[in-house]
Design a protein that fits this description.
Elements (H helix, E strand, L loop, with lengths): L18 E2 L39 E3 L5 E4 L1 E2 L4 H15 L2 H9 L1 H41 L1 H4 L1 E7 L4 E4 L4 E10 L3 E6 L2 E2 L9 E6 L2 E6 L8 E9 L2 E12 L5 H4 L16 E5 L5 E4 L4 E10 L8 E6 L2 E2 L6 E5 L3 E6 L8 E9 L2 E12 L13 E8 L3 E7 L11 E8 L5 E3 L9 E5 L6 E10 L2 E2 L9 E2 L3 H8 L26 E8 L3 E7 L10 E8 L5 E3 L10 E5 L6 E10 L2 E5 L6 E2 L11 E9 L2 E7 L7 E10 L5 E3 L9 E4 L7 E10 L2 E2 L9 E2 L11 E8 L4 E6 L11 E10 L2 E2 L3 E2 L9 E4 L7 E10 L2 E2 L9 E2 L12 E6 L6 E6 L11 E8 L8 E2 L9 E4 L7 E10 L2 E5 L6 E2 L10 E4 L5 E6 L9 E5 L10 E6 L2 E6 L8 E7 L6 E6 L1 H15 L5 E9 L5 E7 L7 E6 ...
């Protein structure tokens, strides 16, 4: 806050005339917009001190530390007072009133004058100080601008902030002084988190003035105890300083022990307040007799000392006042209402209203009060709202409202009790219960006050009494008014208000007699006194008469009535009566009044009809909105009661215990997910109506609303005219699944945003979208709206401003859509989507980073050292209750790309009730995964996925959901079912779990399933046969687990065989291995072998059928193994010759050998010829290899490997001819095809080229190009070819007919088929390629037709003075270029000395008729047309006395060097030669070579003693 006096007003003494300081709390600031209120009239000083129009005066005075020390209270001075002048004041002083007032208020004026003088001095000092500081600051700024570079230096602290220890709710200010140039940027931090004053309005205040920077913390609490850091930074560096703030609390009541506030007036004049109501109370439920407190925290900014807003509480729109039932409290920042003893009268909508001069804020919530437990079971609830409608000297009419709860039995009536004020004795007023909710209480003592209460009764018993009414006196209303009235001020006049009573006059007849209320229990008569005035002691007698008779009977025979009202009891129900009234006094009884019309005793007021059309509507998870049609023709309607019942239970509970007088009500306190039905009934004084018809059942769940705005808009890819955006899902989806998103964009020009435009008409389901039709290098902002069944939500905040420019980086863009699932106390699973922008190469992996949510940026750490190929990652080893954030980076061959947006913070905690997926195998061996959710909502669904992707193949699984449980059953478990299965429950707080079915786990489950299906002895392996050495045959199996009591029967062709020479049996019960060995197989051994096992009740058997070809093969194998045993006694092949193709497309022939020794030889042969050993032969670890690089047809043949030594010989052959060679080449081709890159499109100056790269190209590779699924017939316009490892298709001069799908097919004739790669040449891709082709073509045409000098000129021409020089060069260009000759960069013009010509539009000649030393210089030719410019230059050196060379002609070589011609004598060749380049002088031998082939150059130089030198240049001269 600044001082009350601006620095530019320090010399104007007239300023203080219009200010006065008023102490105390009686001052109320006027409205700033009113010119005649008690504010400062600035216009009155306009002639002396004009104030700028936009300047707002400040009314806060500050001391040297900018602390508020008081307030300047402006007092309006009427302009007429100044116009009166000194003469008016002189006249005023001469009056007696002035003298008297002067004596009376002398002391007060002196005190006020003293305060004014003190105030003036303070304001002058403040203004002087501010002006001086500003002058110093302006001088400093001036010198800085004069010499900025010399003054630039890093920030430094002159005064550092110091630490503070303060009491709670006090304010603290940290300040420091910082020097630096340029002015440093200052940021305040709390525990290393930047402080944003706008994020917590009123809490922090940051100021920076004249290199003094301060942070003010208002109303400190324990959370403000922290380390604060101030950081200053400019281009020269950065410095920081630290200070700590410790907030303490007193042991006792904080408010009592806090330091006393500063005294003085508190004004809100000239300040705009911002009010926020937080920490609100919600819908509350209570029971009669309990105490309930409602409270809200109120934040008012700015905070003024001792300022208190106007806090009011309302119930159902009626202002509440403090009473014994309602206690209100304001603690400075919290408003509290305490209901000390709840009754049903306290039920209703409570509203807190906080008002300041800037406006008001309100907050409302409903309070429900249930009946207290009945003292007698089945008794009704207590009546409510007991009040007195009519009170006079003789009776008081008491009314009430019927309760909503009747205890299950109809209410028979009500008893009214009275209690005289000052006593505690209650007296029952009626002997029999009354059903009408009004009753006149008689027998009261005039002038005494009474309170009343009512009790309801049914056949089960009496209810609790109602809350007592307010006290009311039994007296005439006029007397009551006089008692409540206040005396009028003394005026000096006496007014006679009544006439003197007249004595001895009988009163006249009462007037306007009528029956005001009639029930079957009583009638109430009212009338007006007679017209005569001044009658003494008038009282009344009431008479009745049965209708149709003339027999009048006095009702009150003993005591006349004093008031003009009377209640009659004990009338016969159904009879008709007439009534009249007589006046009486001491003079006698007057004439009767006119009788009333015949009145039938009974209830005139009928109970209301039942409401209709009850319609319930979803509202929240615990409430339903019920609406209905009002009762028809209802009279004196009090309100409605609503009851609810769980559908099918027929148990009804009241929704409200106080009648509501509207036809729409929100029923709270319902059970989420249950279905309810509702009914309504009306109530008036006559009673309760019948219930309405039951409503349709409605499920209690949150109503569908439009979702909140999305957030976190980022760019995933950017090209020339489009951008791909991503955003995060709204925090609240509105109770229904989001159906899509709408994107808007607007252009930002020079920081000014334009109008919003729709980017998509149809909603997009994904949280990523490409916005097209943008302008390159323009800036844009975006906003996103989410939509669901309820509609489209409000748009998000505008995004950051993004520049639309094409990304050319080689690395991929950022991943997006980060999601966290399966959050546990030590782990969680992170999911993401791949980048839209892939970079130069496809993405081949991802890196995941993590840090604690509150940690600085330096705390990021990687979770995986090697990139993961998946788009999910399970993070382990987390700290419990710690919050974490994550980010993901994609990688391709070029490197690691941009990081994704940071995920939302997630706390590592296992929520209560969290359950995991459980695998189960039932008795039938069925495998299933089961998941149970404890916190489901009605809209929740179980979503199963495999490897966190949707499961497309539903034939392998069966899903079933019942209630809060779901399971998937594997129909036929197999290897296809290996993976991670996860389940997510929608519309929850992220309930999810996963289960990993690995190959090992699947095997385990299958084994358990088998055990459950078949109660057999588990076998590790079935009966199998294997060959042993020497051709012996072994039949064996292995049981998984078997006891010592197990036995085995060996059966062959249904006959049990036993141990003998032919069969050798063995049964190892420890390992479960059962075997039978035969030395050899004979023809009679063909048949079925069976092992039958039994272990207690468990049995099992395994059979092996050896018949036909199987037996023959086995017998052959046995014989072969027998021979093999003998073969392996010498060097032999363990693995015979085979081939493999490496990824580098090399063919390797290999074999594995054994039993080798040094003397053993290994020889390779191809087609019978030995292959000499070279670098392609190798032997390592018993493997012999022959490598064939870049295989071709010449490598086809029969390869043989021979091993031999003194122990024997072994041979292995591999036939690589015909089909075998084709198979080999197909495998090579397959490697080549798989290494091919996706087809890409590029443009050349001839057309569009589609190409792919392979790792290695082979001439035999069969490749076919396709256009629209048909093979392309190549022509001059469509060509294909190979350059290095690139295969391309060239489309010359493309047209729209060339648009479509192109493909390259690698025709591999094997079981795997060919490989085809396709690309779509259409749409934007075609447009871009065509545009690039046209650009390149235009550039090529321009390059072709640009102006050219078709040959270079010699670098140096040395010529003797007086000679003639003629230089000629070829020029070209379309259109014909303009030729300009320059000398020393100045243009030459043709004249007699220097002749410049252009001949036949092809030759440009330069001729000097007689050279002189003045012609020495640098010459150049410049040719130019619309396509370009080219120049050539040479240096002319004119010398004196150069000998005559006698050269008649000489030539230039291909490099432009001048050489001697054929006619040059050899003795002349030793002389210096003119017209040659500076680089070198050719040798005689070289010149002889040129003389032998003079036709190789068309450039000639002819020289005579008197003839000019002529040099002609063509394309060969460079």
């Amino acid at each position: 806050m600044s001082g009350s006096v601006p620095f530019y007003r320090k010399h104007q003494r007239s300023l203080n005339r219009d200010y006065r300081y008023q102490s105390g709390s009686g001052y109320s600031a006027g409205t700033s917009g009113t010119t005649r209120t008690r504010g400062l009239d600035w216009s009155s000083q306009s002639t002396l001190d004009p104030l700028p129009k936009r300047t707002k005066p400040s009314y806060l005075a500050v001391d040297r530390d900018n602390q508020i020390i008081g307030y300047v209270v402006p007092i309006f001075r009427n302009s007429q007072e100044f116009a009166a002048g000194y003469s008016e004041k002189s006249k005023l002083r001469n009056t007696a009133a002035y003298m008297e007032s002067r004596d009376t208020f002398t002391s007060g004026l002196e005190m006020e004058r003293s305060e004014q003088i003190s105030r003036k001095e303070t304001m002058r000092e403040s203004a002087t100080r501010i002006s001086f500081n500003k002058t110093i600051h302006e001088h400093e700024e001036h010198f800085k601008r004069m010499n900025e570079d010399g003054l630039m230096h890093a920030p430094e602290f002159v005064i550092k902030p110091r630490s503070h220890t303060v009491w709670e709710k006090q304010c603290v200010r940290l300040h420091c002084t910082i020097n630096g140039w340029p002015d440093p940027r200052v940021v305040w931090y709390k525990n290393n988190v930047a402080i944003d004053p706008l994020a917590n309005v009123g809490k922090y205040k940051i100021e920076s003035k004249y290199s003094v920077h301060s942070l003010e913390i208002n109303r400190c609490d324990f959370e403000d105890t922290a380390q604060y850091r101030v950081s200053a930074m400019n281009v020269k560096g950065e410095v920081s300083a630290y200070a700590s703030v410790v907030v303490k609390r007193f042991k006792g009541e904080v408010d009592e022990f806090l330091p006393a506030p500063r005294h003085g007036p508190v004004s809100e004049y000239g300040i705009t307040f911002q009010t926020h109501i937080v920490d609100n109370f919600g819908v509350s439920f209570g029971r009669e007799g309990e105490t309930m407190s409602l409270g809200c925290t109120v934040i008012i900014y700015p905070t003024l000392h001792r300022y208190q807003p106007d806090v009011q509480w309302f119930r159902d729109g009626i202002l509440l006042s403090p009473s014994k039932w309602n206690h209100m409290h304001w603690s400075g920042d919290r408003a509290t209402l305490t209901l000390t003893h709840l009754n049903k009268e306290d039920e209703g909508l409570y509203t807190l209203r906080v008002s300041t001069k800037s406006g008001y804020k309100t907050y409302s919530a409903y309070v429900f009060v249930r009946d207290a437990d009945a003292e007698v079971e089945g008794a009704p609830g207590a009546p409510l709202d007991v009040c007195c409608l009519d009170a006079n000297k003789d009776y008081i009419i008491v009314s009430w409202k019927q309760p909503a709860v009747d205890g299950g039995n109809s209410i028979l009536g009500y008893f009214v009790d009275r209690c005289e004020v000052g006593t505690t004795h209650w007296i029952q007023c009626n002997d029999t219960p009354v059903k009408f909710a009004r009753f006149p209480v008689t027998g009261l003592v005039e002038g005494r006050s009474y309170t009343f209460r009512v009790r309801a009764v049914n056949k089960c018993g009496m209810s609790r009494p109602s809350r007592v009414s307010e006290p009311v006196a039994a007296m005439d209303p006029a007397d009551r008014a006089r008692m409540r009235g206040t005396s009028a001020p003394w005026t000096g006049q006496i007014i006679v208000t009544e006439e003197e009573p007249a004595e001895g006059i009988v009163p006249g007849r009462p007037r306007e007699l009528q029956v005001t209320e009639a029930t079957k229990n009583y009638l109430v008569l009212s009338w007006k006194p007679p017209c005569e005035k001044g009658l003494e002691g008038v009282m009344y007698y009431v008479e009745k008469c049965v209708s149709g008779t003339d027999s009048w009977q006095r009702v009150n025979t003993e005591i006349p009535v004093k008031s003009p009202r009377f209640a009659l009891f004990d009338l016969a129900e159904g009879n008709s009566y007439c009534f009249r009234v007589r006046c009486c006094n001491a003079a006698g009884v007057g004439e009767p009044s006119d009788p009333t019309e015949a009145t039938t005793v009974g209830d005139k007021l009928d109970t209301p009809s039942a409401p209709s059309k009850v319609v319930p509507t979803r509202n929240t998870d615990t409430s339903v909105v019920v609406s209905w049609e009002a009762s028809r023709d209802a009279k004196e309607l009090v309100g409605y009661y609503i009851e609810a019942s769980i559908f099918g239970s027929n148990v009804w509970e009241p929704c409200n215990n106080k009648p509501v007088n509207v036809t729409r009500f929100i029923c709270h306190g319902l059970m989420t997910g249950e279905k309810y039905v509702f009914r309504v009934r009306a109530v008036n004084a006559a009673g309760l109506s019948q219930f309405s018809q039951e409503s349709e059942p409605v499920e209690v769940k949150a109503a569908i609303a439009s979702p909140t705005p999305p957030f976190g808009i980022s760019v995933l890819e950017c090209v020339r005219d489009s951008m791909v955006l991503a955003w995060k899902q709204p925090t609240f989806i509105g109770g229904a699944d989001i159906t899509g998103y709408f994107v808007d964009y607007r252009e930002v020009v020079d920081g000014v945003p334009g109008k919003w435009h729709e980017a998509n008409i149809r909603a997009v389901a994904e949280r990523a979208y490409r916005v097209t039709d943008l302008k390159e290098n323009n800036k844009y902002q975006f906003q996103v709206r989410a939509a669901n069944m309820a509609g489209v939500g409000i748009p998000s905040l505008p995004s950051d401003t993004f520049l639309c420019e094409e990304w050319t980086i080689a690395v991929p863009g950022p991943p997006h859509d980060l999601q966290l699932r399966e959050v546990r106390s030590d782990s969680m699973v992170l999911l993401w989507k791949t980048p839209v922008y892939q970079g130069r190469d496809p993405v081949n992996g991802f890196y995941v980073d993590v840090k604690e949510a509150e940690a600085p940026e330096e705390a990021w750490r990687g979770l995986n050292t090697k990139p993961t190929q998946n788009t999910f990652f399970k993070v382990k080893n987390l700290k419990e209750n710690e919050s974490y954030v994550f980010r993901v980076r994609a990688q391709n061959q070029a490197g690691v790309g941009k990081t994704s947006d940071i995920s939302e913070p997630v706390q590592a905690v296992t929520k209560p009730g969290t359950k995991e997926i459980v695998v189960d195998v039932d008795d039938d061996g069925v495998i299933s995964l089961n998941f149970e959710c404890a916190n489901m909502t009605p809209d929740s669904k179980f979503v199963w996925s495999k490897n966190y992707e949707d499961m497309d193949d539903s034939s392998r699984l069966t899903m079933e959901t019942k209630g809060n449980k779901s399971k998937i059953t594997f129909n036929s478990p197999g290897e296809e079912d290996i993976g991670i299965y996860s389940c997510l429950v929608t519309h929850t707080d992220g309930t999810s779990s996963s289960y990993d079915i690995s190959p090992e786990e699947l095997k385990r489950l299958l084994e358990i399933s088998h055990d459950h299906k078949f109660p057999k002895i588990p076998l590790k392996s079935d009966l199998a046969v294997e060959m042993l050495e020497k051709g012996r045959v072994r039949f064996w199996l292995q049981a998984e687990k078997i006891s010592a009591n197990a036995n085995v029967d060996y059966v062959f062709n249904d006959n049990v065989v036993s141990q003998g020479e032919k069969y050798k049996m063995n049964f190892d019960k420890n390992t479960g291995v059962v075997e039978m060995i035969m030395e050899s197989l004979m023809p009679e051994d063909e048949g079925t072998f069976t092992f039958q096992m039994q272990d207690g009740k468990a049995t099992n058997q395994s059979s092996l059928v050896l018949i036909g070809d199987v037996f023959k093969e086995l017998q052959k194998e046995s014989e072969f193994q027998r021979k093999e045993w003998f073969r392996k006694q010498g060097p032999h092949f363990i693995e015979y010759l085979s081939y493999e193709v490496t990824p580098e497309c090399c063919v390797v022939l290999k074999c594995k050998v054994g039993n080798m020794k040094k003397e053993t030889s290994a020889l390779w042969y191809k087609d019978g010829r030995e292959i000499k050993a070279d670098e392609n032969l190798g032997f390592a670890e018993g493997v012999l290899k022959l490598e064939i690089a870049q295989i071709s047809k010449k490598d086809a043949g029969v390869y043989e490997m021979v091993l031999k030594d003194d122990r024997g010989k072994d041979t292995s052959t591999l036939d690589l001819t015909d089909q075998c060679f084709k198979d080999l080449m197909n495998e090579v081709f397959n490697y080549i095809a798989n290494s091919s890159t996706p087809l890409k499109i590029t443009s050349t100056d001839q057309g569009i080229r589609i190409y792919t790269f392979v790792s290695y190209y082979n001439d035999l590779l069969p490749v076919t190009w396709h256009y629209k699924d048909s093979a392309i017939a190549f022509s001059d316009r469509l060509k294909s070819g190979v350059v290095g490892d690139q295969l391309w298709l060239q489309i010359s001069e493309p047209t729209e007919k060339d648009m479509g799908k192109y493909a390259i097919e690698f025709n591999i004739n094997d079981t795997r088929g060919g490989l085809k790669r396709t690309i779509e040449l259409s749409g934007q891709a075609y447009e871009d390629a065509l545009a690039e082709f046209k650009r390149l073509k235009a550039a090529a045409v321009a390059e072709k037709n640009r102006a050219r000098v078709a040959g270079g000129l010699p670098d140096v021409v040395t010529i003797q003075e007086g000679k003639a020089l003629n230089l000629t060069c070829n020029i070209s260009g379309d259109p014909l270029p303009q030729v300009t000759w320059l000398k020393n960069d100045k243009e030459l013009t043709s004249d007699e000395h220097c002749i410049l010509r252009v001949e036949s539009a092809k030759f440009a000649s330069f001729t000097i008729t007689a050279v002189s030393t003045a012609d020495t210089g640098k010459y150049s030719i410049l040719v130019k047309n619309k396509h370009g410019t080219e120049s050539a230059e040479f240096t002319l050196d004119v010398v004196e006395g150069t000998p005559d060379l006698g050269v008649t002609s000489y030539w230039t070589d291909a490099e432009g060097n001048v050489v001697f011609g054929a006619n040059t004598p050899k003795e002349k060749m030793k002389t210096s030669v003119t017209g040659i380049r500076k680089e070198s002088v050719p040798s005689v031998e070289k010149m002889n070579d040129f003389t032998e082939n003079p036709e190789e150059s068309e450039n000639t130089v002819e020289e005579d003693n008197d003839d000019p030198i002529e040099i002609e240049l063509d394309n060969k001269t460079k």
